[in-house]
Design a protein that fits this description.
The structure is a homodimer of 116-residue chains. By secondary structure, chain A is α+β, with helices and mostly antiparallel strands. Chain A has a single domain, classed as Winged helix-like DNA-binding domain superfamily/Winged helix DNA-binding domain (Arc Repressor Mutant, subunit A), CATH 1.10.10.10. Chain A has six helices and three strands. Chain A binds a DNA duplex (30 and 30 nucleotides) through α4.
DNA sequence: TCCATATATCCAAAATGACGGATATACGTG
DNA sequence: CACGTATATCCGTCATTTTGGATATATGGA
């Protein structure tokens, strides 16, 4: 993931409807959600949602797979991880001490055995 | 940091000149860089840089402090951490198992005692 | 006060992005 | 093949963003 890829991904997420769409897809992992149902969930027209999904897909953040008449979209969590890692490399590169609090925060919120 | 704040921050970083500016500021922590020198570094006109810095500042990602005639800008790493955490909460919320690989990757790249 | 330096603001032009109606394409069913 | 459903593409409109010239504001020095 180079800088251009990262900017494409950030641009994709820097819009309310797309952010909501992506979050909905993350919550529905690993089942996925058909495009039409996403449009209803976010309450935007079908063609607008299709355009947003195309932008998210171009950024690598979602993938659509045809299942009969529907196209089921799924979030690509590995890609999200790449984006987050890219951002944090700006922070950690060469000076790991800066990110210790971040690691701690993430560990406490995201490790299976953690409470908070 | 709510969704609107996150989108403001993502929008601020989703532009090449601003991304380069922010990375330059991170690399110059904690000294900071005057606005004019930033413009020369990124090779854009002074007023354009000023506008970009205003956007980054509005997003909370940088802060400028007047020092004599210059205004020294610094990256706000805590804010960057908040943005990254926001993104990752989409991933980790309610299902921590998804983020275990991410934690591992971050730990290996960002923990003081780590090699890679 | 007058001048030079450093930065911000004003303004307008060009580019980009979001939106949604209308229509095309893909798929399954009868 | 004809029809209904699901999604994508086309296209015009409107709003936002980016950019940079000109100018205003702030600071320090003579």
């Amino acid at each position: 993931m180079d800088t251009t890829d990262a900017i494409t991904a950030l641009t994709a997420l820097a819009q309310m409807s797309r952010m909501e769409t992506f979050r909905a897809l993350v919550q529905h992992e690993p089942k996925g959600v058909p495009a039409g149902e996403l449009a209803r969930l976010i309450a935007i027209p079908q063609n607008t949602m299709s355009a947003h999904l195309a932008i998210l897909a171009r950024a690598g953040l979602v993938r659509g797979e045809r299942r009969s008449r529907s196209i089921i979209y799924r979030a690509d969590l590995a890609r999200l991880r790449e984006v987050a890692t890219f951002l944090l490399k700006d922070c950690c590169g060469g000076r790991s001490e800066i990110c210790a609090p971040l690691i701690a925060e993430l560990t406490s919120c995201c490790t299976p055995g953690a409470s908070k």
